[in-house]
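User: Structure tokens for both sequences below?

Assistant:
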Amino acid sequence: MNSLRALARRAEGDTAHMVAAVVLIGSPGVGKSSVLEELATLHDIEAIEHGAIESEQLSLGRPLLPASSWIRQLETVLSLQRDAGRRRFLLSATVVSAEDLAALRKATAAELLLVVCLSASPETVAARIDAREPDRWPGKAPLIARARALASSTPRLPGIDVVIDTEQRVAQDVAAEILEAMRRRGMLGSH
């Protein structure tokens, strides 16, 4: 029923009341946090109302929470944000399976949804993580190994709308490309 209402509103050109979400996925080290921050800044510059959430914060700790736990938490947070009047969300997440991505897509409850997979080579994500994480952290080597594997598998997940290579690009340029994709899809509404 929501999707029928959304189609009717969209056909009438009314996207202002629709829930829109951009979900940035990709392996650790691909640039999700940096791009999310730049995308939020571009929204601020254009005075576009939004909420920005880095979902990794919901899983941090020892042990990391599985996707089934943090996705449920994210769904609740987004519901509370919608209750507070927010209608546009910028999200980042690390998903490892098609099931995780499907659950994440559903958790957004977005009528307009854009899933962007940021990608880079296994060597690049490993080098970025090696440069940013302290050597004393015991999780560094396992994170690098996980990032290498996800760098190859994540871009092949079903349910991705756009794949953007971050290998030789700065976060600001990637964010500008995503903002333009949002504009083309009618996700920015009137602001």
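Moving on to the next sequence.
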Amino acid sequence: MKRNLIAAALVPFLIFVLPQSPPRNQSGNEQADNSEQSRDQAEEGIKHLLVAQVEAWNKGNLEGFMEGYWHSPDLTFFSGGDIAKGWQAALQRYQRRYQGTGKEMGHLEFQDLNIDLLGPRAAVVTGKWQLTMSGGKTPHGLFTLILKRLQNGWRIVHDHTSSADEK
């Protein structure tokens, strides 16, 4: 009798605690392949976003560049001790800095990109940026981006960009 009670108590516990086997049609290797494929697709989507941003910037298309950012009042952009809160504020910051009188956008390059997927819908991207200006100056620095996969694809939801001192 005691054995039957112990067994009856252990069965639900073991069902809950023991790992579930993969679905019949999907082995562990197939799950790993699907996971790797999802990771590759996510990384390609993020790279595509960044390439599109660089291309838009280098054509002088600031609005096209801003398409890579989350069009939300909750977007945050940290740079040089300043915080721009919201998509519109980030756009205005770029306009003042690169499209004002006597300003130029230069030629943008991203280097040393590292994409760290935090899950299927979030990533951190770090890298270096460099502008080449018509007068030969090359402002440059580092960035950290937080991206989320939204309904319209990957978008930057937070940008922290620093500038290196000119030498």
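User: Anything stand out in the second?

Assistant: The longest strand covers residues 107-119.
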